[in-house]
Amino acid sequence: MLTTVIGLIYYFTIFPIILANSVLTLGIFGFVLSHIQLVLETNSISLLIARYLMFPTASSQLFDKVLEKNGQSSFLIECKKKFLQQDINKIKQSSSTTKRSKFVQMEIYWINYLPFKILFLFYHIIRSILPIVISLIPVIGPITVTVLCSPAIGKHLLKRYFQLLNMNKRQIEKVSHRHWGQFVSFGLVAGSLQMLPYVSLLFEFTNLTSAALWANDVINKKIKNFHD
């Protein structure tokens, strides 16, 4: 249903521009390629919307359930206890903060942190737009984006494991760089499956299950030196 709605919106807005450009440059071959592009782009956009609006809670629950079924209940309990303790510490810390210190912190934030946050925001916007621009290239565009984004796809699917261990961005980047080949190969296969129209949402769950099994192997030390 979501893919159909997104497809109709895409068809009456962006698609006419792509179709005109493809037909003018490639003729009848461009007509065929533009319709293939329509299917791939519609699928990618609908998956992106579903992933960030519908899946966050369900994906975490699925990931935890797979770990639990593979005998990692004690690991999950220990990680969630640490989360609870961290929340309690944050509440205590915030309650002991005076109004004066809050004012000072706000002043430091506006002067020292906000300008850099704005720069990082522009960086992330450009970084997000670039794959979209590349994906507009008929047929090879979405495939190229999948290959380029394969490490990020691997990290995204393993995100819940990183959350359970309370790993920061620097630690995650260190792990992904050390095991770059594993993240690329896993992300490439997962991304290729998610390119299949109308079944991409199903493969999102199967990919999460595979990521949870990967995490289970890491916990059981079947994959050595994953963190260190």
Describe this structure in words.
- The chain has helices at residues 2-13, 15-26, 28-53, 56-69, 73-95, 99-135, 140-148, 150-157, 159-164, 169-178, 180-194, 200-219.
- With 228 residues, the chain is mostly helical.
- The chain has 3 domains: 1-54; 56-96 and 137-228, no CATH class; 98-132.
- It is elongated and about 60 Å long.
- The termini are far apart.
Give a brief rundown of this model:
Helices cover 84% and strands 0% of the residues.
Number of domains: 3
Number of strands: 0
**Range of helix content:** over 70%
For the biggest sheet, the summary is:
none
Structural class per helix/strand content? mainly alpha
State Rg.
Answer: 22 Å
Order of helices and strands: HHHHHHHHHHHH
Extract low-pLDDT stretches. Answer: 98-104
Compute the average pLDDT.
78
Percent of sequence in beta strands: under 5%
Envelope shape = elongated
Number of helices: 12
Rounded to the nearest angstrom, the distance between the terminal CA atoms is 45 Å
Features:
228 residues; 3 domains; mainly alpha
Which helices and strands appear, and what pairs or packs with what?
Elements: H1 2-13, H2 15-26, H3 28-53, H4 56-69, H5 73-95, H6 99-135, H7 140-148, H8 150-157, H9 159-164, H10 169-178, H11 180-194, H12 200-219
Helix pairs in contact: 1-3, 2-3, 4-12, 6-7, 8-11, 10-11
